[in-house]
Specification:
With 207 residues, this protein is mainly beta. Helices cover 5% and strands 54% of the residues. It has one helix and 17 strands. Strands 1-2-3-4-9-16-15 form a seven-stranded antiparallel β-sheet. A five-stranded antiparallel β-sheet has the order 5-6-7-8-17, with no helix packed on it. β11 and β12 form a beta hairpin. The chain is globular and about 65 Å long.
Length: 207
């Protein structure tokens, strides 16, 4: 059973980091703009407005069954959640973090999420001799999934997310060396990586 552990708040979206998958909830940006305008128009009945949403999941195929996300880099800010009328379901002083790690998601491979300039990034950290072919994400609930100009296009009913071409590198003799890397999609919406020129398997690899 999947366990929701952390929520990432993004513009027009939420990302829920769970024990064996990620769930995304996307809001229609046009509907949100209409809602914003209506809130400043006294003649608009807000009850007549609707906001279309789209949720999809990314499963960690063949991952460690005991996987859990661990938060690091605690921020000074925090959140209070007083929702509904039952104090037992309220929460205060909820910590905010800059980084989340799935340690040993696959044997010898960690997954790290962090924020850069308002964007979410993730790194696979592949230990020496670990089999990078273990990595496989399966997308559920999309309208389409395709690669164009080496970028991954995740198509939903409300918008399209574009993940930039993967960047991989290693440190060889103290020098950063870029490693050629690309997305691969199977017919059943499974995502993996390919390395057309190979890489030094005796050294750590970052994707």
């Amino acid at each position: 059973q999947s366990l929701q552990q952390y929520q990432v708040e993004m513009n027009m979206a939420r990302m829920y980091l769970e024990s064996d998958r990620i769930t995304y909830l996307l809001l229609n940006p046009d509907d949100m703009a209409n809602l914003h305008d209506a809130q400043h128009d006294p003649n608009t009945d807000l009850a007549d407005l609707k906001i279309d949403c789209h949720a999809f999941r990314v499963h960690f195929n063949r991952a460690n069954p005991d996987l859990t996300a661990e938060s690091t880099c605690l921020m000074e800010d925090y959140r209070n959640y007083f929702v509904g009328h039952n104090p037992d379901k309220w929460a205060s002083n909820v910590g905010l973090y800059r980084q989340l790690d799935y340690a040993n998601m696959y044997e010898g491979i960690d997954l790290r999420f962090y924020g850069v300039d308002g964007n979410i990034k993730y790194d696979f950290i592949v230990a020496p001799s670990a089999n990078v072919a273990q990595i496989e994400f399966e997308y559920e609930g999309l309208d389409n999934l395709f690669i164009q100009d080496d970028n991954l296009h995740i198509v939903t009913s409300v918008n399209t997310i574009v993940e930039q071409k993967p960047y991989a590198y290693q440190y060889i003799s103290g020098q950063l060396m870029e490693v050629a890397c690309a997305f691969v999609i199977s017919e059943d919406n499974k995502l993996s990586f390919t390395f057309p020129e190979g890489y030094d398997e005796t050294q750590e690899l970052i994707i």
